[in-house]
Each structure stands twice: as structure tokens, then as C-alpha cells.
Fold Extracellular solute-binding protein.
Amino acid sequence: MKKILLALLTAAVVLTSCGPAKTEIELYYYKQENQDGLKLLVNEFQKDNPNISVKLLVIPNDADSAMSTRASQGELPAIMQMQSYARVQEYASKGYLVDLSGTEVISKVVDSSLPAVTYDGKPYALPMDFAGIGIIYNKDIFADLGLEPPETYDELEVVCEELQAAGIVPFAALLKENWSVGHFITMVHTALLQDVCSYDDFIAGMNSGDLSYGCVDTNRLFSILDFYGANMNSNAAEMDGAAQQRSFGTGEAAMMVQGLWGYIDAMKVNPDLNAGFIPFPVFNDPAKNKLYADVDSCFGISAQASEEEKAAAMAFLDWLSSEKGQKLWVENYKLTLSFKGADVSSLGGPYDDMMASVGEKGSLPWLFSQYPTVVFEDACKNGAQQYMLKSKTASQVIADIDSQWAAATK
């Protein structure tokens, strides 16, 4: 009898110690603006899915080489946050991503967000946030000086003159890093394309070699970059993202050209910041001045992951689409959503301005997301930064973009 009881106890111990195994997956992300918000999201997911452990990996800028190395080794993270369009198309064409056709999570997103994650007619990622880049401005400073948010380029020039006269920096700078001015040059270029050709024709023409990046009014393009630089902090070359948001948040500068992720960090500097959000007015026709807004980031599942890891990754995407996941994404990660009927009312302020502007005027697509990745990461970002720092001429920037685009599409 004792032997039988001992055997049962031993079996019970074995069964207890052999509970469900925990699947460990890695989630790569590049948006470092609100790491605490993402960590909270992942922690809540793990509470709801105790058999899945998620390790976070951040590579904020120029992650191409790191991801290329991991891809060649068959070790891509199970979940990858990617910029929309070109990155998704590149990874899907190389067989790095799982086809999400027919999944429940894809059925929950608005149809207009699907082109951003589609390759060869199939969705290869989950579109998440709809983001905008434009002018974030301090409403209190504008009110104190009796200024209205500019709707035309001429009005912007007057606003900058008034701010300079009052001893206030018009635009908080960010030239120590290349990514923000990379967004700026492509934003202005995309706006100028409205006078030249359709966006699809531009991308097709560049890919075929029939067009130059200089097909727009390049004098206008670079004169706007000159104007932008002339209205920055005097130490612009030394300012990174944190310095930019500090300058804006403290009221040293009245405006910053940035995505709304920059507003989140500025709010950490000044929780009472009263800000608005408007398009950067390239033209004197207000109807043509639209926010640079599109699906920003998305999540893809690595085709190199094991079947168990793929299932865990899909569980994370499904959880993000749940009511709880959406609520936490908006309220803690501070980003909008691409899901049908998503509630973003808690974001308020500049986010309301973005949705109102897009609803009234439409938006400019994030065309840089359709450039070959190397063109945006190298030729546009570096070229714009080098131009602003007076180490490269306008014609050199255009020539570099053309040559790198041609090399990338051979």
C-alpha cells in the first residue's frame, strides 16, 4: 500500500512540475518614443496569456544591417514592428513574413489601411497606427502674441517674423540626428508632387528610371529647407530629439515640425502644454496644404519562426485587436488605430486636430514608405541633414537620391 501511495505521489509531483510549457518570442520595435507604454501593453498581454513570454528588442534607427544579418541567419524576431509599404513589400518579397490573408485580425482593420501592408495582393502585416507629421504649435504662445495658426506659406513667414521679434524661436530644431529632417524633405517633396504627377506615376517613374527626384520645383523645395533652418535654434546642429522636445515643451520654441510622437515627449517636459496640430503650409493655396498622414507602423510575423512561435505571435496580434488591447494601445501607447470603429477620443488635443484636418482636406501619403528602403535611410535622411549643415549642395542631394534609387531597382 505504501508503495502504491508513493508511486501516486511521485506521479503527482511529475505532473505538477510538467505544466504547460512557456513559449518565448521576441518582439522587435523601432518606435522608442514611448517604451513604457509598449512595456505595459506586453505585460498585460502576458498576464492574459501566461504561457507566452515576450522579450522586447529595440533598434530605433537604421536597423537594416542588424535585421539583414539576422535574416541571413534565419533568426528574425517572431514579431517585427515595421514601417508600412516598402519595408513590408521588401520583407514579403524575400519570404520573411507570414501571409495574414483570411485571419480574423485582418478582417477588423479599415480597408483603406490595407494597401500599406499588402504585397502581391496579400496582407503580410497588421496595420496599427495612423500617424501624422506637421507643425505642432503652442496655442498659449500664439494667443499671447495674437497669432493665428498659419494656413498658407506667406502666413507662416509672417508668424516666424513675429515670433523672432518677440524673442521666441519659431521652430525647435533637430539636426543632430538625420531622421526628422529626412521626414521633412520627403514631406515637402510629396506636397510639391501635386503640381507634377500622381504619386503612383512618380514611384513607377523613379523605379523605371524615367523620372528624377528633381522632377518637382527643386528651387522651391530647397528654399523651404533654407527657411526652416533659418528659423531654428542657434545650436540646431547639436540638438537631438530630446533637445527638440525640451525646447518646445519649455516654450523656448513656439513650434516643431514633428509627428505626434514628439508631442508625447514634449508633454513629459510640460504636462500643461496646450498644443495644436496643423499641416506645414508649402503653398499659398490652403486647400493644397495637407497633413503628411498615413499608416505608420505595422506588425508582421516572421516566416522564420517555429510553428509554436508563430502561434504565439498571432495570439499577440489577436490580443491587440481586442477591446482591451485597443484601449491600452490608445491610452498608454498614445497612438491612433487602424481598426474599424476605434475609439481615440481619449487622446484629444492635436490628435483631434489631425482627424479633423484629414477629414476636411484629406492627407498626403507617406510616400517615403514606398521608396526603396536604402534611398530613404541613406540618400534622403543623410542628404537632407548634410544640406541643412551646409556640407552638401541641393544638386548633390538630388543626384545621390537618383543614383541610389537606380541602384536599388536594377
Q: What stands out?
A: Confidence is low (pLDDT under 50) at residues 1-17. The chain is about 45% helix and 15% strand.
